[in-house]
Amino acid sequence: IIVIGVVSVLCGAEGIKDIWQFAVAKEDWLKKYLKLEKGVPSEDTIARVLSIIDVQQMEKAFRDWVETVLDGRVKSISID
Question: Is the pLDDT of residue 60 over 80?
Fold first, then answer.
């Protein structure tokens, strides 16, 4: 659900319904990278999981991951 959330927001999703709609539309693509044995989680499940995430910890984890992936090659990335 976290991966679905991050990818969908990077693609323009602005809320839970957008995240869910993105996941449904891109389910075949997502299944290449994620185990979705029971299909795309419901909107309610996505909302519950995302609501318990500590935003500051998620931001730090995301920044750390991006730094690892970029390996110091880029100073900043703008995401609108």
Answer: yes
Asked if 3 and 26 touch (Cβ cutoff 8 Å), the reply is: no
- The span from the first CA to the last CA of the chain, in angstroms, equals 21
Average the pLDDT over 19-43 and give the result: 96
How far from 53 is each of 30, 45, 80, CA to CA, in Å?
Answer: 21, 13, 21
Is the pLDDT score of 25 beyond 80? Answer: yes
Virtual torsion, Cα 59, 1, 17, 8, nearest 10 deg:
60
Q: What angle do CA 34, 5, 26 make, to 5 degrees?
A: 55
Does pLDDT of 66 surpass 90? no
Pairs from 48-51 (Cβ < 8 Å, separation ≥ 24): 49/1, 49/2, 50/1, 50/2, 50/5, 50/16, 50/19
User: The pTM is what?
Assistant: 0.80
